[in-house]
Each structure stands twice: as structure tokens, then as C-alpha cells.
Write a structure and sequence with these properties.
Rossmann fold, nine-stranded mixed β-sheet, two-stranded antiparallel ribbon
């Protein structure tokens, strides 16, 4: 089945995903600021563009181009070179303009998706949609519209979301967890007075996936998934403790 998967380029993550994402999946990556959500998304896009000739598109509602280029360079990625080659496209816009673009076939966004044959997409971040409405039903319609528009083009997409309690509660009320196909959680955990990063796949529709919580690091080349946490319980609750023998 691995040859039919959309591999992330993050070896340990692909193992957790039983070979990679199913084509056309909507993947929600949740995490607090600094956990590496954007790095994961860029790694996914760059790997597809360089290794599989699958053009990628990053849509950002919040990051300035200069800071994105700088952060990518610190991980060893030259975004400007990838843009110049047509393998990666960056779009900086607002949630309102993005949603309006989905409704018009001749919009800049839809023309880019078709003309550049975009196969992978990252959206940073879906959290901004929460601020457009206080109505849960309307928010669900927004999430559904975004997901269906991308699925219609058979794009595999990573949707980034903030992990703050208020933001997650709004997203849950809007049904985002039910609309997406995959949920990956990135989290800081404190183990013996030291901060560590943890990753877990909470959901993967249509496929089996690993259930363990694993360490990960961020450095040159992006994320590296390491071994599972052993001897600890309560990692996702925020109150980790040693497992009982």
C-alpha cells in the first residue's frame, strides 16, 4: 500500500501513518506556537516537489514572506530557488479573500491550482476562520467548503491549527475534527524538568495508524521522529507521570 500513499518525507511520520497519507486527504496538524507546524508543512511540500515532482502551494494568512524565507533557510531550505523553478508556490492573503477565491473558477487561486498542477497544499492556518463568525453552523460551512474545494481537485492538504483551548473549542464546535481525514497533534511535554516535543496521530480515516506517542526534534532538514515515550503516562493531559509497574 505504501506506493499508493502520499509520503510526507518525514520517515518516522510515514511509519506512523502506515506508509503515508491517503491521496486527497485533509490533514489537520494541531499544536501550540513553536511546536513546528509550519516546518512540518514545508517539509511535506518540499519533499513532494523535489522527490516526486508534485508542485506544492503554501497559503499563509499570518506570516510575512521575509520571515518565512528566513525560517526555512535556517532548516536548510531555499524557498526562493524552489519558487523560481516552479516547484513551490507561496501565496500570502487573508481568510476572506481566500474563501471568496474558492467560489470563482477564474480566481488567482484556482488558476494557479490548475495551471501549476498543484498536488500538495498547506494552509496556515485554519484558526483564522474561527474569527470570521460566532455561529458554529456557519463555521462548519466554512470548514466544509475549504475541504470540499481541495478534495475536488484531488489535492492532499495540511491544515495547520493552533492548540489553545479557546481556539480548539471553537474548531470543535465547527466540526473540524469530523471534517478532516487525519489529525496529528504536536505538543510540548515536561519530563523530569525538561521540555520535550511529542507527536501522535489521533485519527486517520480509512487506514490503520500507529497509536503510540513519539519524541521528535527539529533541525536541519526539518522534523525527525524518534523513539516512543516509555515509562510515562498522561502525556496528552499535560500532567505526565511515571507509569505504574
Amino acid at each position: 500500500m505504501a506506493d499508493k500513499r502520499v509520503t510526507s518525507g518525514i520517515k518516522g511520520l510515514d511509519e506512523m501513518l502506515n506508509g503515508g497519507f491517503l491521496p486527497g486527504s485533509m490533514v489537520l496538524v494541531r499544536g501550540a506556537p513553536g511546536t513546528g507546524k509550519t516546518s512540518l508543512a514545508l517539509q511535506f511540500l518540499i519533499y513532494g516537489a523535489v522527490k516526486h515532482n508534485e508542485p506544492g502551494l503554501l497559503i499563509s494568512f499570518e506570516e510575512f514572506p521575509s520571515s518565512l524565507y528566513r525560517d526555512a533557510e535556517s532548516l536548510g531550505w531555499d524557498l526562493k530557488e524552489l519558487e523560481a523553478s516552479g516547484r513551490l508556490h507561496l501565496m500570502f492573503t487573508s481568510p476572506e479573500v481566500f474563501l471568496a477565491s474558492l467560489e470563482f473558477p477564474d480566481s488567482r487561486l484556482n488558476r494557479l491550482i490548475l495551471e501549476a498542477n498543484i498536488r500538495r497544499l498547506a494552509l496556515d492556518s485554519v484558526t483564522h476562520f474561527n474569527r470570521l463568525t460566532d455561529d458554529a453552523q456557519e463555521l462548519r460551512c466554512i470548514y466544509t467548503s475549504v475541504a470540499n474545494s481541495l478534495r475536488r481537485e484531488r489535492i492532499t492538504a495540511i491544515l495547520l491549527g493552533e492548540e489553545g483551548r479557546a481556539e480548539y473549542r471553537r474548531a470543535f464546535q465547527g466540526g473540524l475534527s469530523f471534517i478532516v481525514d487525519v489529525i496529528i497533534l504536536l505538543r510540548y511535554v515536561e519530563i523530569e524538568s525538561a521540555m520535550q516535543r511529542a507527536i501522535v496521530v489521533l485519527k486517520m480515516r480509512g487506514s490503520n495508524h500507529a497509536k503510540e506517542i513519539r519524541h521528535y526534534e527539529i533541525g536541519q532538514g526539518g522534523l525527525t521522529i524518534l523513539e516512543t515515550f516509555k515509562g510515562c503516562e498522561g502525556l496528552l493531559s499535560g500532567i505526565p507521570h511515571r507509569a505504574r509497574p
